[in-house]
Amino acid sequence: MIRKKAALVHAVGMNLNGRGLIFSARSGGGKTTIALNSVMGRDILLLGDNYVIFHEGKVYSFVGNMSLYRYNLSTEAKKRISLHDSLRLLLGDIVSKLTNRRVKLATLIDFAELYPGKVGTYAPMSKGFVVLPKVGARDVSIREIDIRTFVGYLVENQKCELLPVAQLVLEYSHFYPDNSMEKQWKAYRAILEENLRNARLYAIAVPCILAKENLNDIMHQLEVDW
Hints:
Strands 1, 2, 3, 4, 5, 6, 9, 10 and 11 form a nine-stranded mixed sheet that branches. Strands 7-8 form a two-stranded antiparallel sheet. Helix 5 packs across helix 7 (180-196). 39% of the residues lie in helices and 27% in strands. It has eight helices and eleven strands. The chain folds into two domains: 2-63 and 119-223, Phosphoenolpyruvate Carboxykinase, domain 3 (Alpha-Beta Complex); 70-108. It has 226 residues and is α+β, with helices and mostly antiparallel strands.
């Protein structure tokens, strides 16, 4: 993919009125919650729940099954899921509570089946958001950040998703600093910067548990200046 000047990015991707935007966060950071609460009632198409692809300044669809828990279901999604999936979600929630949240069992659900007609293909990259859950926070705060800072967050989030691979690269690179694996991350960073150079980029600090008013604040930010 890097040879084709493309990059796989750990993020939610959306097409809002023909413009592409992403929300990147580490697993459990609120990406799916934001996606599920964004698509209904708005002219938004989902481009990816967990990953998207950057190529030539565009965000391309990489939609797979959504990893759902009872806590990140929107009101609309609760109405749409089957009884079978509702029971699976309930079982996962019981296991999580019995283990004091040490074990999390996700229920995989096809977004295209849950929301027919709400999956897009691609859009020009326009805005990027990195989601930063903060312990003790009650409100959403947002600030614009520079491209190098934003790309740094994307790279770290990607490494966390590929933790065993990232650890191997780190250990190997300590002894062989000019190895090709380490150069892959440098090339990856360069591709991200090239695809984001015309986008506005933000960091959003959010509560660890997103309330409805928090989601409304985020949705307002999506549409401001557009």
